[in-house]
Amino acid sequence: MNKYALIEQFNLCFNQLEIEISALSSALRELTLLPSCVFELPDVSKEEEHDEITRVTVSPSYNLDALELSLNLIANLFIYDNAPHISSKRAIRLPGALCFSASNSEFKNVKAKIESINTLKKKLLNIVTKESGISKEERFNFVHNQLKGLITLNAYRTLTLISDPDTVRFGWANKNIIKNLTRDAILTQLEKSLEANRAVPPYTSEQWALRINKEIATITQLPEKAKLKIRRPVKVQPIARVWYSDIQKQVQYACPLPLFVFYIEKEPDFKPIIGELADYDANNIQIRHRPKSKQLELIIPRLHLYLEQS
Q: Cα–Cα distance between 24 and 107 in angstroms, integer?
């Protein structure tokens, strides 16, 4: 696909996504809202965006307030939708559950709308990361040349729809992303970063290139068969634990946005069982099982790249 056709497809996909989100919001406002709750997390300022999270105080909102907060966030796709001091590198999270009483036809209608939105989100991601053929380092410029100020984390993250759970409860997940890599794979990644010739604040392009060249030299000195591992901590994230008694199964969902929870053809006095999200305190986390890990030496701190000791 040539460049101009790709740009046109990207813009058409995004415009359709905005239309579908608006249509979903209108449809949800017409339904019967059951007791619902969402939990606002504190704003993350630009100065705090790289800080380790040790405590999170949540602020619950209920029912219609919860619905409006949720619909506003789903439609919030640009930096200028947020206050100027808020970090654009961390997506705003709003865990919770929006619960609706609906007929089977109403459920199918909303299900089709959410599936359409998720398809467009995945298509948008695919255009940028695969069809464009551009490197990871060039994606920022490609996206923001078309849609200045787009928060890609918000644009890509999908919506979750579930039906007739027995209970929905909330908690926190704390984990690391671990990826094994070869020396040559890391060198290729660093060379692409060098070729992109970008300035990464607070560095000038020349200072950044100097830093990458030093990293390349460090990796080149390692044995060809060196065992390298990226071990990047993921910021603590809210999760939902959903229980279905008829199949005796609990399903866990990442919960950056509220779950859309539908109860189909229920009695008029039906009330869902929805839990609260407690504050997060890193000092009170109990780890049930910590597997024994191999000795690791930190090689490139910014990449969280480690050398596994033999």
A: 12
pTM of the model: 0.76
Beta strand 167-173 with 237-244 is antiparallel
User: Mind listing the pLDDT tens digit for each residue in 261-293?
Assistant: 999 999 888 999 999 999 998 777 665 555 556
Nearest residue to 68 via CA among 107, 28, 34 = 28
State the amino acid at position 73 in one-letter form.
Answer: L
**Spatial separation of the C-alpha atoms in residues 92 and 239, rounded to whole Å:** 15
**Per-residue model confidence (pLDDT) at position 195:** 87
pLDDT tens-digit readout, 165-217: 999 999 998 777 788 999 999 999 999 888 888 878 788 889 999 999 999 99
Length of the chain: 310
Query: Tokens 């551009």 label which residue?
Result: 134
Quick one: pLDDT at residue 50?
A: 64
Between residues 176 and 103, which one has the greater pLDDT? 103
Q: Name the E strands within the chain.
A: 32-33, 37-40, 55-56, 59-62, 96-102, 161-163, 167-173, 176-181, 228-233, 237-244, 249-254, 259-264, 280-281, 296-300, 305-308
Please state, in angstroms and as integers, the Cα–Cα distance from residue 200 to each residue in 143, 211, 303, following that order. Answer: 17, 11, 14
* Angle, helix 139-146 to helix 3-29, in steps of 10 degrees: 70
Domains of the chain, first to last = 3-171+238-268 (3.50.14.10), 176-233+294-309 (3.30.54.10)
Residues facing residue 9 across a β-bridge:
none
Beta strand 37-40 with 96-102 is antiparallel
- The conformation of residue 49, written as its DSSP 8-state character, comes to T
Could you tell me if 285 and 205 are in contact, meaning their C-beta atoms sit under 8 angstroms apart? no
DSSP classification of residue 149: T
Neighbours of 46 (CB within 10 A): 13
